[in-house]
Every structure is written in structure tokens, then in C-alpha cells.
Write a structure and sequence with these properties.
With 328 residues, the protein is an alpha/beta fold. It has 2 domains: 231 residues, Alpha/Beta hydrolase fold, catalytic domain (Rossmann fold), CATH 3.40.50.1820; 70 residues, no CATH class. Helices cover 35% and strands 19% of the residues. The protein is built from 10 helices and 10 strands. The protein starts with 9 loop residues before the first strand and ends in a 9-residue tail after the last helix.
């Protein structure tokens, strides 16, 4: 049990339970934090394969400066959290852990439940939206560089033969793990291959620049890995937030980098995915395009992160409070 008297202003190392496992988390609190006070709060879920020390550690201090208590955590099997299979991007397991983080925040006496919000980055943008569709404890949510449409990213982006072959490879990985008891870990995003290409003069993608260098790679964050189970894609392919966008019924702000609308951005085009989700989403909603920013710029570039936080802060202040309580 967390001792409230031990909490301090700034970053606090804590744990909470999710699905019977201990999850490692950082709880960011405002300057002059008083456990007898009342604060708006945020559950932050990080990008694909990330650990809490990466993007969450950029957003947490800034949001705490603005008066929020924010939790960012290592999902099951990631970073310092428990979980036998490591780095498994199981969308539905992650959604359950987001719900458990919401529940945990609701137990803290200094959290104002009428001002409890969610932020999801990249893949977690879609997971946060799916969570909020059936979890009205979240009074408003934000996606940042959100992967909001996995049906479009996989099934609609590939022909039948290609997507079936992709799925078959995932299934073979699962079968092998079941039969041998050994999970094979693979370079799902091709980062390892890109390391060699860059050595030979290729221009690095922005994903490489973030995940495979000192900027945010394992050299800086040793508990991060770019490797995933060979069956990792089976669940995320089914997690399509856009299909449920008309039924979100929770205030939503979608934030993208201007360059994420461009086909040559070097990553999945999260700009169009977010815009499609936004167009279909229920009101109230807001779409924000950060000028000059790319998809990954919104992970850690202070200039762009501060503008994203400005937008979220204003949106949360507008849509939090008793006005969002469910009507009888």
C-alpha cells in the first residue's frame, strides 16, 4: 500500500496492481503538493513498446507544473513491471491496465474524480479511445500522434494475400512458443536492419533517430527494447478505435504533428489516421495540428511538446468537472 505521507512534489516511484501483477509507475505531482488537497489527474499511456522513462517522463513534469497529478506506468511485461512475456503489444491487455490505472487513481484521496483525464501516445492513442468508449470515469481524453485506425493500417492497406501471410507468420510464432515454451523475439519495426543501413550511409528514419540512438534508445534507457514477441501483431490488428469513434461520447482532442500528414514522413501516417477518427468521433472534439512537428517530435521535443500540452490543458479545463457527469 502506498503511503501518502511519503509522496513528494515531482516524480514518485510507485507500484499498483493490474490483473494480479505489480506494475511499476511514476506519479508526478505539482509543486507544493499536499496529499490533503484535491488535484486534476491524468492517466498517461505510452507509445508502442515504450517504457515509462521515455515520452511519459517528458510530459509528466510539464503537466505537474500546470497542477495535474499524472501517472505513467510500464505496461505488463514492459520495463520494470511484472509479466512473463516481455514487450508484447497486446492491445487488450494494455486497455485493461489503463482501466486499472484509472481505478488506482480513483483510490487516491487527492485525485479529483470529476477531473480525471487520459492521454495516449501513438498506439496508445487508439487504446485510450477504446478504453474511454466504455469507461466514463475518464472525463476527457487526448491522443498524441495517435494510431487510431488499425483496420486501415493493416487490413485496408494490404491486399488479402499480403495480410494473410502477415497473420500466418504471427500464428506460426505463437504455435512455436506454445510447443517449445520459448518466446521468439523479433525486430518488428526493422530497427536492427536500419542500424546497418545507416552505417552504410542511409538516411535514418525518425523512428531510428528516437529509438536506436542516445536520444531515447536502450543506451539511455536500459529497460527499453525494440524487440517484440513474434506473434505480437495478432491483437493490435483487431484494436480499431475508428470503428467506435461515433460512440465515444467522451470529449476528445486529437493532436498531430504537421509533418505526420506527409507520405514521406518516414513513419506510419498518423495524421490522416487521427483526422479520420476525429471526423467520425462524437462531439465535443478538437483537432490540433502542431506546425513544424513530425510524429516523433511530439514524443520529446520541448518546443512541440509544450504546444501539445497547452492544447490539452485548455481542452481538459473546458470539459472536466461536474458538467461531464453522466446524466440520470
Amino acid at each position: 500500500m502506498m503511503k501518502l505521507q511519503n509522496l513528494k512534489s515531482g516524480k514518485n516511484d510507485i507500484t499498483f496492481k493490474s490483473q494480479g501483477l505489480n506494475l511499476s509507475a511514476h506519479l508526478y505531482t505539482p509543486e507544493g503538493f499536499d496529499s490533503n488537497g484535491s488535484y486534476p489527474a491524468i492517466v498517461f499511456s505510452s507509445a508502442f513498446n515504450q517504457v515509462k522513462e521515455q515520452t511519459g517522463a517528458v510530459y509528466g513534469p510539464d503537466l505537474a507544473e500546470r497542477g495535474y497529478v499524472m501517472i505513467v506506468f510500464d505496461h505488463i511485461g514492459y520495463g520494470d513491471s511484472e509479466g512473463e512475456i516481455r514487450n508484447n503489444e497486446n492491445a487488450f491487455v494494455k486497455i485493461e491496465s489503463i482501466r486499472d490505472a484509472v481505478s488506482f487513481m480513483g483510490t487516491l484521496p487527492f485525485v479529483d474524480r470529476d477531473n480525471l483525464f487520459g492521454i495516449g501516445v501513438c498506439a496508445s492513442g487508439g487504446y485510450m479511445a477504446l478504453t474511454a468508449t466504455t469507461d466514463k470515469r475518464l472525463k476527457a481524453i487526448a491522443s498524441v500522434s495517435g494510431m487510431m485506425g488499425n483496420k486501415a493500417s493493416y487490413f485496408e492497406a494490404m491486399d488479402r494475400e499480403t495480410v494473410t501471410a502477415l497473420i500466418a507468420r504471427q500464428n506460426a510464432g505463437r504455435q512455436k512458443a506454445y510447443e517449445t515454451g520459448v518466446v521468439e523475439y523479433v525486430d518488428a519495426l526493422g530497427m536492427g536492419a536500419e542500424v546497418e543501413a545507416v552505417k552504410n550511409g542511409a538516411t535514418p528514419s525518425e523512428g531510428y533517430d528516437y529509438y536506436m540512438t542516445k536520444r531515447a534508445g536502450a543506451e539511455t534507457y536500459p529497460n527499453y527494447s525494440h524487440l517484440s514477441p513474434s506473434f505480437m501483431l495478432e491483437a493490435p490488428m483487431l484494436a480499431d478505435a475508428t470503428s467506435y469513434a461515433p460512440y465515444l461520447y467522451t470529449p476528445y482532442i486529437g493532436i498531430i504533428g504537421e509533418k505526420a500528414m506527409e507520405p514521406a514522413s518516414g513513419v506510419l501516417m498518423t495524421g490522416p489516421l487521427t483526422k479520420t477518427f476525429f471526423d467520425k468521433a462524437s462531439d465535443p472534439k478538437q483537432f490540433v495540428e502542431i506546425e513544424g512537428a513530425s510524429h516523433v517530435d511530439l514524443y520529446d521535443r520541448d518546443e512541440f511538446v509544450s504546444r501539445a500540452i497547452d492544447a490539452m490543458d485548455g481542452f481538459f479545463k473546458k470539459h472536466g468537472g461536474a458538467q461531464t457527469k453522466a446524466q440520470p
